[in-house]
């Protein structure tokens, strides 16, 4: 699978379009978790398949995304790619009971006479003390782990789901979770005692700090800012600014706005300026008041 920090000359950056890099990173990038219910390497998506289908995945057309939400875009990239080598695929199957929706199964797939129920997630969390918190502070990693393991992956086994699945020819499904994304370590205190036992040691990682800490913590280099729809994979860009220009922009930004900035440190390579380090810059009121002016999200215990 792809390394968690691709060098500037890595073949990932040879893909000229962001949607190609997003798709390759979604499929073949580093997993966030390493557990029995969310393994790093999937039986139907291993290194051999990556080598065999890398070019076929790259040649798929640009997706017609139904949403600008990163999680839904991530799901569509998987849905578009898996038919290349899976025998059968069904997505977003709603499980109902007595006119009530119990939930939705993200993916059902068949490969070499085996069948899986897969739940997909693209997540970004920041270390704060012993917790991992999303840019939207209502989102917590430990809560997400419990919800995925104890609820989402169990849905395909409930009687109402079993009846619907059997009618559609799905049986003996193996549940598995697929989680991608980045964990941001506190630049002011890189040590953390709150690493989940389920974490993949080779996960994608970055750094975070508050806006008022940039002068002290942000390293020298060439930098750029990413729009949220550019967060999914390591960035390849054409232009950059120096450290002082980035800090000046961030100071003006946080004087009026309260949503985070995602900054990337770049290195020149054969394909352009390739991301080598990622930072999340947070407003001073996070996480107690969320990150958006209209979102006052208090942390939940």
TrEMBL record:
InterPro entries, alphabetized: DUF1853
Designated name of the protein: DUF1853 family protein
Higher taxonomy: Bacteria, Pseudomonadati, Pseudomonadota, Gammaproteobacteria, Oceanospirillales
């Amino acid at each position: 699978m792809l390394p968690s920090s691709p060098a500037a000359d890595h073949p990932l950056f040879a893909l000229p379009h962001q949607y190609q890099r997003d798709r390759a990173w979604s499929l073949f990038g580093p997993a966030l978790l390493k557990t029995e219910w969310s393994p790093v390497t999937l039986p139907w998506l291993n290194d051999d398949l990556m080598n065999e289908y890398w070019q076929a995945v790259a040649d798929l057309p640009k997706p017609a995304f139904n949403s600008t939400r990163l999680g839904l875009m991530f799901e569509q990239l998987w849905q578009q790619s898996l038919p290349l080598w899976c025998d059968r695929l069904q997505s977003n199957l709603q499980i109902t009971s007595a006119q009530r929706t119990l939930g939705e199964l993200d993916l059902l797939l068949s490969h070499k006479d085996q069948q899986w129920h897969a739940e997909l997630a693209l997540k970004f969390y920041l270390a704060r003390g012993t917790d991992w918190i999303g840019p939207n502070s209502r989102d917590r990693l430990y809560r997400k782990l419990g919800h995925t393991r104890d609820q989402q992956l169990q849905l395909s086994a409930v009687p109402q789901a079993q009846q619907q699945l059997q009618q559609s020819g799905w049986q003996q499904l193996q549940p598995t979770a697929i989680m991608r994304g980045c964990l941001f370590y506190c630049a002011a205190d890189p040590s953390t005692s709150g690493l989940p036992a389920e974490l993949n040691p080779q996960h994608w990682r970055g750094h975070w700090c508050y806006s008022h800490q940039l002068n002290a913590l942000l390293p020298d280099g060439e930098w750029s800012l990413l729009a949220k729809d550019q967060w999914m994979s390591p960035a390849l860009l054409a232009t950059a600014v120096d450290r002082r220009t980035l800090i000046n922009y961030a100071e003006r930004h946080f004087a009026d706005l309260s949503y985070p900035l995602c900054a990337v440190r770049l290195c020149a390579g054969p394909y352009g300026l390739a991301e080598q380090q990622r930072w999340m810059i947070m407003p001073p009121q996070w996480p107690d008041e969320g990150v958006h002016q209209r979102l006052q999200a208090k942390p939940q215990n």
